[in-house]
Design brief:
The chain has about 150 residues and is an all-alpha fold. The protein has seven helices and no strands.
């Protein structure tokens, strides 16, 4: 190989080394963010928990990030956790915008959820948030779905 080819290969390797942390996921980072979010949720620090859950979700979407050790359906779990945070914030503040944000996260994953316990929890939380924003007919429908599917 000539010097030009070696220079190009070296340059590409350098660029890859610099960009790798931004493109490649890291299972340890995902786990760290998720565990921090869980601790914050337990302490009822919902706003910062949302930030940590969001970071865990963003990191999990990178190439090579492994989330199966936390949950096979990690995206569903994290969106559900974020929805719970918004719901709890709405309860604490009476701000329906938090209920609306909870609904955004519920709707992101509800149709693709395959795990019964997540389906049940999402349906319940969906109904509760609809009720909180005074969408009573839709809430009634969701509660009926909950009773029908998960007696």
């Amino acid at each position: 190989m000539n010097n030009r080819t070696l220079g190009i290969i070296g340059g590409v390797a350098l660029v890859l080394a610099i960009l790798a942390p931004f493109v490649l996921g890291n299972a340890n980072k995902v786990k760290k963010f998720f565990e921090e979010a869980e601790m914050l949720y337990e302490r009822e620090d919902y706003e910062i928990a949302i930030t940590k859950y969001t970071k865990a979700l963003q990191e999990s979407e990178k190439i090579g990030a492994k989330t199966e050790a936390i949950d096979t359906y990690f995206t569903t779990l994290v969106n559900l956790k974020i929805a719970w945070c918004y719901y709890k914030l709405a309860e604490n503040t009476s701000d329906v915008r938090h209920n609306q944000q909870a609904l955004v996260h519920i709707k992101k994953v509800a149709s693709d959820t395959q795990v019964a316990k997540y389906q049940e929890e999402l349906t319940y939380l969906w109904a509760e948030n609809l009720y909180a924003i005074e969408e009573h007919n839709q809430a009634k429908f969701k509660f009926a779905q909950l009773i029908e599917k998960f007696p």
